[in-house]
Design a protein that fits this description.
The structure holds two protein chains of two kinds. Chain A is an alpha/beta fold. Chain A is 37% helix and 32% strand. Chain A contains three helices and six strands. In chain A, a hairpin with a 7-residue loop joins strand 1 and strand 2. In chain A, helix 1 runs parallel beside helix 2. Chain B is built from seven helices and five strands; from the N terminus they run αβαααββαααββ. In chain B, helix 2 packs antiparallel against helix 3 and helix 3 packs antiparallel against helix 7. Chain B is an alpha+beta fold. Classes of the chains: A alpha/beta, B alpha+beta. Chains A and B meet through helix 2 and helix 3 of A and helix 2, helix 3, helix 6 and helix 7 of B.
């Protein structure tokens, strides 16, 4: 399966989706001009992955900031991940970033997925 | 040339560290964010305050950019300002708005302003579950998020422009603890 690797920018997150090496990560800042357009390739990749996933998948979110339009798309990503067996989420937040911790908790309440919270 | 001095006096009288009028685009948004971030970094601002200010600025600026998309004129007649005082930051936006839109916006602001912290959290979750990204690219969460990050009531004002439009001003404050 093809690797989805997008370099981060000041307004878009870094994406690494690599089935063979078991790396699934979104990190950085997310405030793209068009969130729906930016997240579509990620949603497409997940849909393709769903048909033949690894036995277990740890999907990592290590976001520093995301805007409200991105938050809706992040929920869409999580909802897509919900359908995959052996899926778990690792939600990173900076140790003094209560808002990012709370955002992760809110997402964990909106989807049926195991969340592990870690600080960086 | 006296207006230059007057403008300078007015800006400092209102404790504004940034005032911008002109075209609003994603590129301009990024530049404004970078300038204010640099200002906060240089004064050693607390990281949690910095994040909240950044957050509210993004929602405010992207609101203007989205409105500008369907109204060429609006993108040039909007303003964005950031005030910094000992006890708080204020993030201010102003843009013309069709009078028919005022009740819709006022309702949204009222809905947000009557909620406390827990109420806002519940409201946010309610919206995010049911919302679809609009054609303009918004999630309908901007005011709720601004109110949550601000921790204060959002202040709004509408000045009738007499052309079927009003000037919509929105102010959010973030306390410096």
């Amino acid at each position: 399966m093809e690797i989805l690797n997008l370099e981060g920018a000041e307004d878009t997150p870094k994406i690494m989706l690599d089935k063979a090496n078991g790396i699934f990560e979104l990190s950085g800042r997310s405030l793209p001009e068009d969130s729906a357009e930016f997240y579509q390739p990620i949603l497409d990749w997940i849909e393709a992955y769903e048909s033949d996933p690894n036995p277990s998948t740890e999907f990592t979110f290590k976001l520093e900031y995301f805007n409200t339009a991105s938050s809706k798309l992040i929920l869409d990503v999580l909802s897509a991940l919900e359908d995959i067996d052996g899926m778990s989420i690792v939600w990173y937040f900076h140790e003094d970033d209560e808002d990012m911790e709370e955002a992760g908790e809110e997402f964990s309440e909106l989807v049926e997925l195991p969340f592990e919270f870690k600080t960086y | 040339m006296k207006y230059i001095y007057d403008l300078h006096q007015s800006l400092s009288g209102h404790h504004l560290i940034l005032a911008y009028e002109g075209e609003f685009t994603q590129e301009i948004t990024k530049s404004i964010l970078a300038m204010v971030e640099r200002n906060m970094d240089s004064t050693g601002e607390d990281s949690s305050i910095k994040r909240k200010v950044f957050n509210v600025m993004v929602e405010s600026l992207q609101n203007i950019v989205k409105h500008a998309d369907n109204n060429q004129e609006a993108s040039h007649s909007a303003v964005f300002m950031v005030g910094k005082q000992k006890e708080k930051y204020t993030i201010i936006s102003g843009n013309p708005m069709n009078n028919e839109t005022i009740p819709i916006v006022q309702d949204k602001i009222d809905a947000v302003n009557k909620l406390d912290k827990d109420g806002l959290k519940a409201y946010y979750k309610e919206i995010i579950k049911n919302t679809k990204i609009s054609e303009k690219g918004g999630a309908g969460l901007g005011f709720v998020d601004m109110a949550r990050k601000s921790g204060q009531k959002l202040e709004v004002d509408f000045q009738d422009l007499g052309t079927g439009q009003s000037f919509f001003a929105l102010k959010a404050s973030i306390e410096r603890l």
